[in-house]
């Protein structure tokens, strides 16, 4: 349980001694024990260089890590003026959106109010009757106009048809001084002089009255 290590280095022995079994390290000679206990200068220098290299590397890694953290913190920090400007832009945007929402709400409420007003007006009996009366008056006016147009058209057609019938009416022809001659008793209309004989009696129809004539001569 000793804190100081024990090295057994009797040297030139032919057998093991008790100290060899209880020592922390056994060397064949004192010189070998010195070499085992005390490292060489080159080994110490190499170990020193390794430790210095590792320490230097750790220091640079620590510096780079702290530099990275500093850069991240610097990026997260915002200029107060820029922060105020961003807040002002957000406030303006919020105000614009809120104003637009309020205007849309007002327009919707106005449209609903107008719709309710129209529905109330339509559902009122007096308003409904007045609307029907107005519609009836419009229809009556249109019907009167259409009736006059149709009546005038029929009157014009009647006058035109009457004129045509008067032109074709035999009585109208007789009134203009013409006459119709027919045979007796066949009542066949005489169209040419060759269709009658000398001494044959004929009936002459005038505009007023009839004549019975006898053929004395043909030309």
Descriptive account of the structure:
The protein has 219 residues and is mainly α. Among the domains are: 7-73; 172-214, no CATH class. It has helices at 18-22, 30-37, 41-76, 80-123, 125-168, 170-175; strands at residues 7-8, 25-26, 180-183, 201-205, 210-214. The radius of gyration is 72 Å and the shape is rod-shaped.
Query: Could you give the distance between the termini?
Result: 189 Å
Q: Mind summarizing the main beta sheet?
A: 3 strands, antiparallel
* Whole-number mean pLDDT: 80
Oligomer type: single chain
Order of strands side by side in the largest beta sheet?
3-4-5
Share of helix among residues? Answer: 55-70%
Rg on CA atoms, Å: 72 Å
Strand percentage lies at: 5-15%
* Element order: H for helix, E for strand: EHEHHHHHEEE
